[in-house]
Amino acid sequence: MKKHIPNAITCLNLFSGCLALYFAFKGELVITAYLVGLAAVFDFLDGMVARLIGAYSEIGKQLDSLADVVSFGVVPGAILFILLQRADASFFGIPVESFAFFGFVVTIFSALRLAKFNIDTRQTDSFIGLPTPACTLLVASLPLILETTDGLLAYEIILNPVVLVTLTVILSYLLVAELPLFALKFKNFTWQDNAIRFVFLGLSVLLVVLLQYAAIPFIILLYVLLSVIKRASPTA
């Protein structure tokens, strides 16, 4: 019976993604963002529970990736698609309404990233390329920032088609880049083995306190930068 517990949690991830997609196409992007966060929690829990009770299975691995394609592949593409539709401008002369489908490029590269992850034996204790949940959390933070930030600056930046297209290209590249990134997996809690993780978590909490939802893009950037620094360090 216990071997099915992680798979049940994975299914909750998938269900959260389906609900997120439903609300996205209803234009309720804030609800979509919260459901993305819920899906990310379930995605974290299924792996943690599987490790705790020793319930690894090949079907669980495949189910996890299939759920992630929806929650962290289709959903961020849909959010970018809708944000591009809402952008009141053109992209180098092309009406944004026609170019909005470009947002689904993130969906394609998310699927490629998940397929690579399933067959890449290097990614047991770390990641190669940006994990799809991190990419999706960044995208999902955009409507939350719009909802909670006063003034026109956030709208002028986030609903700028050039910014959205550039972000889509950068995220798509990072998803499949040969870029080693540390994982938040603790085998122990010593400073020597987890310094980079403790620094990341501490700075992330500080950013959230200072910037609230606007901290999320900076946290993802910090994650990439710390990984690059760790990689370049002689002691890494």
Count of separate DSSP helical elements: 10
Strand order, sheet with most strands: 1-2
What is the radius of gyration computed over CA atoms, rounded to a whole number of angstroms?
18 Å
SSE order in H/E notation? HHHEEHHEHHHEHH
Main sheet makeup? 2 strands, antiparallel
User: Could you say what the CATH topology of the largest domain is called?
Assistant: Four Helix Bundle (Hemerythrin (Met), subunit A)
The number of domains is 2
Number of strands: 4
Superfamily (CATH H level) name of the largest domain: CDP-alcohol phosphotransferase transmembrane (TM) domain
Helix amount? over 70%
User: Pairing-aware structural class of the strands and helices?
Assistant: mainly alpha
What is the molecular shape?
A: globular
Q: Any low-confidence stretches, pLDDT <50, length ≥5?
A: none
pLDDT averaged residue by residue: 88
Supply the CATH class of the largest domain. Mainly Alpha
Give the termini separation.
41 Å
Instruction: Based on the coordinates given, report the CATH architecture of the largest domain.
Output: Up-down Bundle
Estimate what percentage of residues fall within beta strands.
under 5%
